[in-house]
Amino acid sequence: MRGPVLSDDAARVAALHRLGVLDQPPAPDLDAIARLAAYIAGAPYAAINLVDTDRQWQAAVCGGERGEVPRAQSMCDVTVSVDELVHVPDARVDSRFAANPFVTGVIDVVRLYCGVPVHDNAGFAVGTLCVTDPSARRLDDGQLAALRDLATQVEQLFELRRQHAQLVDVLAEVDHYARHDPLTGLANRRTLLDHLELALGRGRRSGVMPTLFFCDLDGFKSVNDRYGHDVGDQTIVAVAQRLAAVVREGDTVARWGGDEFVVLCEDLQPHAQPIVVDRLRTAVESPDDEVRVGLSVGIVQAAYEQTVGDVLSDADRLMYADKHSRRQLA
Fold first, then answer.
1. Predicted confidence band at 316 (pLDDT cuts at 50, 70, 90)?
2. Is 1 contained in some domain?
3. What is the pLDDT of residues 235-260, one digit of tens each?
4. Are 165 and 199 in the same domain?
5. Residue 315 domain-assigned (yes or no)
6. Which region holds residue 169: left if phi is over 0, alpha if psi is between -120 and 50, else beta?
7. Res 1: pLDDT
8. Percentage of residues of the chain with pLDDT beyond 70
9. Burial of 37 (0-12, 13-18, 19+ CB in 10 A)
10. What 8-state DSSP symbol labels residue 2?
11. Which end of the chain is more exposed for a tag (fewer CB within 10 A), N or C?
12. 161 with 194, same domain?
């Protein structure tokens, strides 16, 4: 028999999911609590059960294998629903459990059942710490108090897991923004420098040095002057997306700053350099764009002895030479 329908079970289930403890591998700390609960109760079986929307999943078990059952068959659903300790010396004579397959012998022959609700930090009962025994008997007050204490320990362990997962997410976000340009999402200058340093090392070992394309938008200042900085930012984002779309998967596209971008390619033969430049320019200089910009490009295939600073300085110089040449042609 399923417990009474909770007034806000959706919120309770959402609280369970926020903990991030469902469908996780076995955890030694939770297994230890289940063993201690069985020892305190003198019972052959103890479990930490989590009651999801339509199932009960076991975070830890002593005296059996972890698994899940439909929520309709869960004895612990009653404990979660009433949100208080449920101590039943003989489940056969309790109307809430008498027809349950864990009691009738279809799944098991539970007689003693004791479940203590386990809450999240907002007070939602997300599951239970429970013990069962095929023999009908009563637990004493000391045993019940100890089981309550263990359930509190489970709550604290769950909260620590939630906080740890939250911290990991925050650190991942911090690391992402430390290595990516906030406007475009491209690699930032720091990341490019790291990638270029590594690429130079790999090139010295393989004999094929990396190629760097230093790109600067032509006419971008007039875009800002004429249309404003919002349109300017939109243009930068569009250019970034187009550049990223036409390079190889292993290439690095970075925003160097302002309207400057850098494309780093490894294992690129010299004869392929004009092909890459043509792709980059074609992507940026679309005649269908209402706001049009051009692309000046400085190309350097690093020499064996060059440093990161040398490569970038040469590419920057060649980019300005290309920009001057394009202005002369225009």
1. very high
2. no
3. 999 999 999 999 999 999 999 999 99
4. no
5. yes
6. alpha
7. 44
8. 97
9. buried
10. P
11. C
12. no
CB 261 within 8 A of CB 241: no
Confirm whether pTM is higher than 0.90: no
Domain total of the chain: 2
How is residue 140 written in tokens? 């004493």
Do 60 and 206 reside in the same domain of the chain?
no
The pLDDT score that the predictor gives to residue 65 is 94
Read off the tokens for 50: 């989590």
Please count the other Cβ atoms lying within 10 Å of the Cβ belonging to residue 131.
29
Of residues 65, 51, 60, 68, the one with CA closest to residue 29: 60
Q: Are 94 and 45 in contact (CB under 8 A)?
A: no
Q: What's the residue count for the chain?
A: 330
Residue whose C-alpha is closest to residue 274's, from 180, 200, 211: 211
CATH code at 45? Answer: 3.30.450.40
Cβ-based neighbour number of residue 271 at 10 Å: 7
Euclidean distance between CA atoms 276 and 266, whole angstroms: 12
Q: Scanning the structure block, which residue is given the tokens 């919120």?
A: 11
**Are 242 and 283 spatial neighbours (Cβ–Cβ below 8 Å)?**
yes
